[in-house]
UniProtKB/TrEMBL annotation:
This is Alanine racemase. Belongs to the alanine racemase family. Pathway: Amino-acid biosynthesis; D-alanine biosynthesis; D-alanine from L-alanine: step 1/1. GO terms for molecular function: alanine racemase activity.
Amino acid sequence: MDGTFRPPEEAGARLIVDLGAIAANWRQLADLAAPAECAAVVKADAYGLGAAQVAPALWDAGARTFFVAQLAEARVLRPLLPDAVIYVLNGLTPGATAIVSELRARPVLGSLPEIGEWQAAGGGEAAIHVDTGMNRLGITLEEAFGVAERYSAGTLGFQPSLIMSHLACADEEAHPLTVRQIADFRKIVAAFGDVPASLANSSATIANPDARFDLCRPGIAVYGGNPVPWRDNPVRPVVRLEGRVVQVRDVPEGQGVGYGAAEMTKRPSRIAIVSVGYADGFLRAGGSSSLRTGAETIVRGQRCPLIGRISMDLLAVDVTDMPLGSVSRGDFACLLGDGITVDEVAGHAGTISYEMLTGLGARYARTYTI
């Protein structure tokens, strides 16, 4: 399957997305979630990797329930997955009930005004989002018990298809807030009786059986990021990023490389300039300086460090330790893949794998493999 957006000769780098690995990761998570259903979160264009390609691959792997963040994302997904259940996490936009119904999407109702508008419009199935400690979206526990009473009395006006909440600290082992959230969520689930419940994200799906309930909602783990940082990553990497070498140059000792002369050469050096920068989502903070090391690349099978700041369109790699003449213009340096994980690169940039993946830009020549 070829999903290239730009001809390779017009792009400075190539991004290879392994749909087979994505499908395998989801199947692994589904096995862990059982007997609960395992959904797939494909918001933010499938974490930056392309919902148009990723979502059908997940459907073929067995996913039947999908989560997006915005209604526009549901519109993209519906013709690709005509029979899928699609939840819209950010809720009901004012006046959008007719659009939601047209798309056969299910809003995740996170406030009493949303619930009232959905009820007044005679809406169909929808999720109800309860805030158990995130303090972001969701009705309060007190409000949730009130809504549950209306549901039990037959006066809610629509059928809740899901009761859900969102864990705030699931990626921190044995965090006390997680324990409290699970306990509070259990009380709400009991109040709604027969309505399916969903709490587990990637971290909880893998490491916390108490949080799985009826439906798990893994996201980052599907895309190869490690949601359990206190363990080795249990899922497969799915992305390979290779940047084209546009020039190899000799730099004398004591010279600055890149903007701000942030790092000075400590010896006569050979520097490969690679056509990837922060405009491509390879974050500026992942560069190096004389005070800190930065990310690394793999050039012809050998790890080589970045040197100096990452600029908008370019970065510099120190290839001094490579055999003379082994790196040439037109070669490719591997920035993600061959053992360099998205979590590793994100760590050098002081961020998380979610931000790295969703920020990967549109200038790559993209290819999808199965």
